[in-house]
Amino acid sequence: MTPDDVLAEFRAAGALLEGHFILSSGRRSPVFLQKMFVFMDPERTARLCAALAAKVQASFGKVDYVVSPAVGGIVPGYETARQLGAKAIFVEREDGQFKLRRGFEIPKGARVLVVEDIVTTGLSTRECLTAIEGHPGVTVGAAVLVDRSGGKVDVGVPLVSLLSWFVPDFAADALPPELAALPPIKPGSRGIQGAKA
Ligand SMILES: O=P(O)(O)OC[C@H]1O[C@H](OP(=O)(O)OP(=O)(O)O)[C@H](O)[C@@H]1O
Ligand SMILES: O=C(O)c1cc(=O)[nH]c(=O)[nH]1
Ligand SMILES: [Mg+2]
């Protein structure tokens, strides 16, 4: 799957939104990828995650456990794990911090991959990695459908992306006039009531 093919899947799903968005990081952007419009279509999700799984296998070899940050990472994490023949678990926020809950455990020696939907600053991916630090498995790396930093972000482990695309974002006090003229919308879940950080 080429970068254009990946973008075409997002576009066909109506997931490529334009406007004035407040990202999870608090930064502002004229573009938002509404990944849930992609994930509502299991066939589309399977196509994207099959391509991601192939890249993962080429870069990291065998994977036993996929761990994803809720909410956005759960569906691509599950489907990528299915394609890799791995288990899929997720971290979710408790008092603002990602944690493995529900009795999820990583077995000793398991080869672990973090799978994310979108990376912008990489904070969510890093927080997920922090949440599983000290587990008895071996973290081989991270994988993401779309890296909006265009490959610039450092998540602390090797990162494989299906699409590396630089999308501009801005500090809230340094908006270009065309963005400042639009009302801001915050679509993500970080920072909503009950989910601090
Ligand atoms: O690289 P970052 O700057 O951390 O931004 C990317 C993160 O933002 C979104 O999650 P969000 O926190 O909006 O919540 P969601 O997964 O529930 O949509 C997305 O799913 C990534 O996890
Ligand atoms: O940075 C984010 O919060 C973000 C960007 C994006 O395009 N899509 C998304 O779900 N989150
Ligand atoms: Mg997320």
Automatic annotation (TrEMBL):
CDD domains: PRTases_typeI (cd06223)
Name of the gene this protein is made from: pyrE
Database matches in InterPro entries: OPRT, Orotate_PRibTrfase_bac, PRTase-like, PRTase_dom
Keyword Magnesium among record annotations: yes
Catalytic activity: orotidine 5'-phosphate + diphosphate = orotate + 5-phospho-alpha-D-ribose 1-diphosphate
Enzyme class: transferase
Protein name according to UniProt: Orotate phosphoribosyltransferase
SUPFAM superfamilies named in the record: PRTase-like
Gene3D superfamilies the record matches: 3.40.50.2020
Annotated organism of origin: Phreatobacter stygius
Pathway this chain belongs to: Pyrimidine metabolism; UMP biosynthesis via de novo pathway; UMP from orotate: step 1/2
Family: Belongs to the purine/pyrimidine phosphoribosyltransferase family. PyrE subfamily.
Transmembrane segments: none
Domain of life: Bacteria
